[in-house]
């Protein structure tokens, strides 16, 4: 057994060993410096002359409040039978008073209409109206669940051998 270990170790050493290359040398010729460079000539720095800065004069800005009462009116409506989206809105503003209404088709087929007003004295007030009769789809009949009667299956006997 020891001989096999020695043979395997020798094979590993031979496989790991490579060819020896001669060492390369990098040599350069060095010689002492025989002369020195002439030092650079420096003169005193030039003095920069600056002109007196100009002072800009600006007129003082005065804040002016711009106040104009808001006046607008808009409305829009959507009638999309493909998606079932039916709604509309109308709103009017005169200064701080807003009046308007919007309507939405509910999923049960009714139309909900909201009339609202808003002003600084009374705040926001809304009146909701619902028109139409709700229509609900008929429930689907429950499917009968077919269940098989229980069946007894006896296990086959198992015999031990001693």
From TrEMBL:
Q: What are the recorded GO MF terms, alphabetically?
A: structural constituent of cuticle
> Keywords in UniProt for this one?
Cuticle, Signal
Which PROSITE patterns does the entry mention? CHIT_BIND_RR_1, CHIT_BIND_RR_2
Domain of life (superkingdom) = Eukaryota
User: What cellular-component terms does GO give this entry?
Assistant: extracellular matrix; extracellular space
Coiled-coil regions listed: none
Which residues constitute the signal peptide according to the record? 1-17
Q: Which Pfam families match?
A: Chitin_bind_4
Protein name as catalogued: Cuticle protein
């Amino acid at each position: 057994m020891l001989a096999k270990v020695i043979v395997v170790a020798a094979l590993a050493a031979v496989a790991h060993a490579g060819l020896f290359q001669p060492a390369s040398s990098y040599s350069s010729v060095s010689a002492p410096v025989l002369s020195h460079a002439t030092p650079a000539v420096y003169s005193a720095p030039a003095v920069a002359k600056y002109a007196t800065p100009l002072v800009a004069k600006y007129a003082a800005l005065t804040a002016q409040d711009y106040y104009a009462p808001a006046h607008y009116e808009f409305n829009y409506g959507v009638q999309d039978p493909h998606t079932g989206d039916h709604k509309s809105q109308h709103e009017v503003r005169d200064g701080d008073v807003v009046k308007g209404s919007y309507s939405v088709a509910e999923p049960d087929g009714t139309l909900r209409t909201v009339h609202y007003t808003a002003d600084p004295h009374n705040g926001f007030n809304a009146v909701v109206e619902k028109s139409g009769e709700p229509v609900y789809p008929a429930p689907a009949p429950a499917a009968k669940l077919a269940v098989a009667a229980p069946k007894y299956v006896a296990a086959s006997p198992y015999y031990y051998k001693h």
